[in-house]
Amino acid sequence: MPNFEHPEYPEATLLHLESMVPCRESQVSSLLSIFGERQHFSFPSIFIYGHTSCGKTYVMQTLLETLELPHVFVNCVECFTSRLLLEEILTQLQSLSSEKKHGSHVPCDTFNDFVRLFKQEIITQDLQNQTVYIVLDKAEQLREMEANVLPGFLRLQEMTDRNVTVIFLSEIVWELFRPNTGCLEPFTLYFSDYSIVCRDLKELRHLAALNFTKYCEPVVRGEANERDTRRLWKNIESHLKKAMQTVYLREISSSQWERIQKDDGEPGHLKGLSAHAHVELPYYSKFLLIAAYLASYNPARTDKRFFLKHHGKIKKTNFLKKHEKTSNHLLGPKPFPLDRLLAILYSIVDNKVAPTANIFSQITSLVTLQLLTLVGHDDQLDGPKYKCTVSLDFIRAIARTVNFDIIKYLYDFL
Amino acid sequence: TTTLTDYFSQGKNDSEDSGLRFATCQLLWKQINSETEKIQEELNKQLFDNLIHFLRQSHSELQTKKTEWMCRMKSSEIPTAALVLGVNVTDHDMTFKSLSEVLQDNVTPYVVSLQAKECPGIKHLLQKLMGQLMDCNVDVDSSEEEECVNISQKKIRCSMASLSKWYESVTKKTDSETPSKKRTSSSRHWQSPPIVVIFKDMESFTTKVLQDFIVISSQHIREFPLVLIFGIATSPMIIHRLLPHSVSSLLCIELFQSLSCKEHLATVIDKLLLTTQFPFKLSEKVLQVLINIFLYHDFSVQNFIKGFQLSIVEHFYSQPLSVLCCQLLEAKKRVNSLSHNQCENIRSLPSFRRYVESQVSEKQIALLTEDSFLKEVTQTLLEDLHIYHENYFTVLRCLHVFTTSLPKYPLGKQIRELHCACLGKSVWETEEYESAIQLLRMLAKDELVAILQKCAEIFISSSGKQFSNTVEKLEEFLARFQNLEETSEVQDVSVSSQKELQKTTDLYHLQKTLLALKESKRSKKLTKFEMLRFEVVDFIDSLVRSYLAPAEMQTLNEVVYFNTANTLREHLNAAPRIALHTALNNPYCYLKNQTLKSDVGCISNTAPDICIVYKLHLECGRLINLVDWLEAFSTVVTAVEGTDPDAVATDQVDEIIHARFIRAVSELELLGFIKPSKQKTDHVARLTWGGC
Question: pTM of this prediction?
Answer without folding.
Answer: 0.82
